[in-house]
Amino acid sequence: MNDSVPVLEVAGLSVELPSGADRKFAIEAMSFQVRPREIVCLVGESGSGKSVAAFTVMGLLPKALRPVAGRIALAGEDLLSAPPERLRDLRGSRMGMIFQEPMTALNPVMTCGAQIDEVLAVHTSLDPAARRARILDIMNQVRLPEPERLIDAYPHQLSGGQRQRIMIAMALVLEPALLIADEPTTALDVTTQAQILELIKDLQRDHATGVLFITHDFGVVAEIAHRVAVMQWGKLVEFGTTEDVLKRPRHPYTKMLISSVPGIVPRHRPRPETARPTVLKTEALGKTYADAAWFRKSRTVKAAESVSIEVRRGETLGIVGESGSGKSTVARCVARLIEPSAGRIWLAGDDIAGLSAGRLRPHRRKIQIVFQDPYRSLNPRRTVGESIVEGPMNYGLGRAEALARARSLMETVRLDPGSLDRYPHQFSGGQRQRICIARALAMEPELLIADEAVSALDVSVQAQVLELLDDIRQKLDLAMLFITHDLRVAAQVCDYVAVMSQGQVVEYGTAPQVFGAPRHDYTKALFAAAPGRNWEFGKFAAG
Amino acid sequence: MSAEARIEVDFAASAAAQVKRPSAIGRMLRHRSVIIGGVILIVMLLIALTAPLLGTMDPARIDPTMRNKVPGTEVSLRQDDGSRLVRTAWLGTDSLGRDVYSRVLYGTRVSLIVGLSVAAISVSIGLLIGLIAGYIRWVDAVVMRVMDGLMAIPGILLAIALVSLWGAGLGTVIIAIVVPEVPRVVRLVRSVVLTIREEPYVEAAISVGTPLPLILVRHIMPNTVAPLIVQGTFICASAILVEAILSFLGIGIPTEIPTWGNIMAEGRTVFRVYPHNILYPGIFLSLTVLAINIMGDGMRDTLDPRMSKRV
Predict the structure, then answer these.
(1) Does residue A63 share a domain with residue A208?
(2) Model pLDDT, residue B20
């Protein structure tokens, strides 16, 4: 391949949004190139237009969005003026795409082999035997175990990582010149993500593919990008080599974004001299799920097993682990949203593990929880004021006093107290998460559980919410249980860390201990997989 | 492609957040199907309410001398005081000499009463049972088996059984139609409850100590309103039809109270010679059911746009 011609050249591209949207252009005057054997990362926060850019290149834009200016060239061939038949021909053969959700991007009623075969059948004239050989070959290349067996497997029989490998195999089977990856690892666990990133890097090198990699994660950028394009509000604000952009960013937005990335080295936190009173203590807490079965042996799943943790007043305990590790199960058992099946939960001296709903009621107030999804944790039909005063009024506070408390809490979470009579959809994700925090605080809890409370937020908003949570913990002297999959976040807010894997706590200690000298193999693997662990974000060189 | 849909949804969401859209009711009232269906229904409702003022006479009045007159015939009726009253039978008379025009207009009352009350009763009972069954697991197992049992009873057979027990009448017919409808509503409500109870905002309400009845009414029930309104219109239409069927079969409402079904039943034997006995109540019946159905379709389009694309 001629290395002087860029695989993808985007010049002055503008895509118009339908009237009534929050801005006129989804993308405005955007220019960048992807050269052969190069990975270009397109980074930006949600709504920055990075996915629209990818879809415009693929010719998959919804009808409401129109490219109104500029040029897109794939190895010199203009794509915007190409007829639909030509675009269809190019998709798959000259450019491939990987999507974020490996669950939904594959057809659940077709075997994996048949889905890869479809690409070959449409674009080549190979006979079935040759196609099968080709499929087995690409499945080997994406390092799927036992390709002979998986070729006849359905997507639901595969793990998330394996599905993403199938997607990559589909995208690369015809050796396209350009691969577009739209957040391909966002839905994956950190160890799987590390493997997939490694795979994309290797395949791209071996096949001389140009890759346009869309992500919001600067760790991933540091890991694989050759060049980085930063987007804000539909505009490309910075474009340069990874080294330049991460170490010497010029645009203030890039600087802000990069310094918002939490560091992986635990922040130094002052330790109290005297031992603080214990707020929460669990002893051998366990949760077993069993499916009801009449005629066969029922299957049991141990979601959590003999978990013993302790949180003192004014301290934060982080529970980290991958999906399915049981960290959320522990949080929900402690909050008594699900019934624990074994063990004890001591809350300020009372065992609440086996209490009935009625006896539990006085204790509920003391434990409050903030959930992951800011879009679903507030009732869309009730004003935020109603949501905040609901709890205190359940415990007998008058409406006027409850509203007064809500107003002062809105100030605590740095929102306008005058906006109590607005509905959740009028707030952004970060604002909604603040409202959820205010709702939890309105109960004057002793223990605040944050269950992946910042995972759905953009990195700049995440930094603000983390700061707010830490502030509140100090000011109100709260005990906090912080559930997260993100090691960087844990490093910033936790005094103690419990690492969970397959329902068990495999490592438990102070944050500096666990992060500085992990002992368990799983913890070590987790840290080794954290993207961009060798970068220190936010330490900019002068100039 | 799913990713394409995702973009569309993202933009729809951001556009929705910025631009104030008309409320669901506002959009509903502007939908063409809702307007057309609504207008027809309002006309029917007015007919039912003002039937005595529309030139009708006693719909049960029998006159053996004026049997089976074709529409437009001049008929003379003997009054109680012996004088004779001459009037035009616009829609003819039936085989007992009763005025079909008056009977059809009065029949509107029964049809609308049956339709509306069956819809209201089955939706309220179904909502209550569905909320509880969907939320409380152990109740669910018991209640849903009972509902399965109810659904297995054929509606017509149940009606015959009830009529033979309690005698024919409006109340019996309404109960006979409500019983098989309730399980359908229960299933609908329960399916909504099962998805909404997993929402974090419901869990948040639990953890701030909201009592169960309040959780159901405040956080879960509002989500069932839109599908229930839609379901209600379809129940209403089908109840009107079932009532007509029952009356036609002679196991519904007795002939002293005219209903579209029993007027048609009356005309069945002489249908070849005098089709008007079946034609006019038939037109009213079809028009009403059609109006309710297209209104229900329109409401579904505005209240639950995803459903209309799927169907």
Answers:
(1) yes
(2) 47
